[in-house]
Amino acid sequence: MGKRKGKDGLQSPDKGAKDSGAMKRGGKDRLEIRGVQVSQEASWLAFNRRVLLQTLRPDFPLLERLRFLGIWASNMDEFFAARLSRAFLQERGSARYVALMEEARDQADEASRLYREFLRELAGLGIHVLEPAQLTKAEQQYFGAYLAEEVAPLTDLIRPEAMADLAPQALYFAAGNGLMHHLIRLPESLPRLLPIPGREGSYVRLGALVRMRSDLFVPGKSQLYEFRLIRLAELARSRADWDELPEALEARLDGRVSHLELEDDFPPLWAETLRVALELEPHEVFRLPPPLDLRFVSTAAEDGPASARFAPAKPERAKGFLKDPWGYLDRRDLVLYHPFEDYGQVEAFALAAAQDPKVEAIRATLYRIGARNGIAEALIQAARAGKDVAVLLEGRARFDELANLEWSLRFQGAGVRVLPLPAKKVHAKALYVRRHGQAYAHLGTGNYNPVNGRLYTDLSLFTAEPRITHDVAAFFEALEHRQAPAPAVIRTAQGIREALLEAIAGEAHKKGEIILKFNHLTDPAILLALEEALRQGAKLHLIVRSTLTALWREAQARSLVGRYLEHARVAAFKNKGKWRVWAGSADLMPRNLDRRYELFFPILNSRAKGKVLELLRAQLRDDRNAFILTPEGQEPRWGGKHDGQRMANSR
């Protein structure tokens, strides 16, 4: 990402990116995109800047704006742990890589400034984050005892010689007199923001308390200096099966250090010692005013007064569906738009299947399901009731492997068959029920996760349409027998790309129209096809939440960032006025289409199709949560009347 500023001071695409125009042929007759190209890493950082800008939304309550600061901080850790991996390993030291670091550093500086502004605004709500010097003597004594009893026994004291083995994301302090003699790692199990007893709404940071009582952590008196680091987080075995997964997880922390944060007063000699030991370049080290790691602000956002947060949502339920889901689906398909339509209906569907004596078999794909999950519990209940229950539990869901390993043990103990992991990661979202010889299915765009189901915008399709249910059953049958799925109507793996390329080519004319809504759109073949459709005069509407690696002046591209995380994946094609609509689990990235089993399914029912099209058109009109993406940069559209995140009947 280059230094040039786009509209509203936002970063423009990569320096030296190619301008838009007709496609041209490169070496070996290979077609090259002529639109302005942006690297995935630069595009993702631009998305995280959009997240950071939500802290300035005039229409958001104060604590919701603060919450976005915590989201930005968590996203930035993910960037250095996972999103940066390819560039770190392949482009490190290049001008483009250095520009990425400059943009990340610029955002970090802005976040630090915003934090200090928030402290002043929070005071108006009666929320205060105090320094230890502002505590009374009695409060200082209390926290001294807390440090001695709760913190110090769990704190690691590390010799500087071991600095190359430091853990990622933990909060560290360096200590010494003249030379760096000790490193302190604070326990990650303890909260970073502590309420002050007797002072409602007042907090003190754990790191500040440790600095106040350094004598409890290191021998003698010493000033402490804060720092933290991030490592690339990759499993040693990308194709680990369940019996290999524990060992693969143990090796996760062997990733190289990709980022170091130091408080701005960190002694220069110590800083250089750390940098060299961790094998980092100067531009990979950020000096920032403490506190580092702003994820802790979510505590204040959650505990603050309800008047400074969004009013609780009141999701709707489909009339008659939960009373008799089987009879309902025998008559019609059902599309739900979460969270405005209750995600709990998906869990209730699974529970109804578990408790219905006529249900013979249940199948499910589970990816990121969390520590508590109603669908998983329903599957366990069904297995204990003697039903045939099998799950494809994806053990390689990044950062959720350990939680899924625990679920695999619980499933097996209850009699749920955990299917073997295929060579490709399974990212599909499918639930299959066979009841008295009749098949039913749920297909979704989001994970079967109760937290995400209430915070992410996603689509659910419930259906008894034989063409769909037959394909879902065949999908699970293939996985169980370690075969490559080959559905007839639904698409999976490379078949998703093939179907989309065919549909895009069908719109490559002056009356053609395409609407694509995805989190990520980076697949070169699909981008080339879209460019050709544009060249032939088609209208192209893109709603891309995070990463879009080609921009054209002829296309209408936007990103929505609002109260809920945009997560649905949808493709719509005008088809001479008879719209064809698809939805599914896949983002349009090579990894999703080549190295995963996703499911992309057609919306066949006309009423359901119309509902999805209405949602897409509402999001194309959005002027409350939108950023317009152009080759020159990104421009916010706020303060208007059209909130495209909401259901039409609730606007």
TrEMBL record:
Annotated Polyphosphate kinase N-terminal domain residues: 39-122
Molecular function GO terms recorded: ATP binding; polyphosphate kinase activity
SUPFAM superfamilies tied to this protein: Phospholipase D/nuclease, PHP14-like, PPK N-terminal domain-like
GO cellular component, one term: polyphosphate kinase complex
Domain Polyphosphate kinase middle residue range list: 180-297
Keywords, ordered alphabetically: ATP-binding, Kinase, Nucleotide-binding, Phosphoprotein, Transferase
Spans annotated as Disordered: 1-25, 631-651
Xref: Pfam families: PP_kinase (PF02503), PP_kinase_C (PF13090), PP_kinase_C_1 (PF17941), PP_kinase_N (PF13089)
Compositionally biased residues, Basic and acidic residues: 15-25, 634-645
GO terms under biological process: polyphosphate biosynthetic process
Superkingdom field: Bacteria
The EC number(s) this enzyme carries: 2.7.4.1
InterPro entries registered for this protein in UniProt: PP_kinase, PP_kinase_C_1, PP_kinase_middle, PP_kinase_middle_dom_sf, PPK_C_dom2, PPK_N_dom, PPK_N_dom_sf
Sequence ranges assigned to domain Polyphosphate kinase C-terminal in this UniProt record: 329-483, 506-635
Coiled-coil stretches noted in the UniProt entry, renumbered to this chain: none
Entry protein name: ATP-polyphosphate phosphotransferase
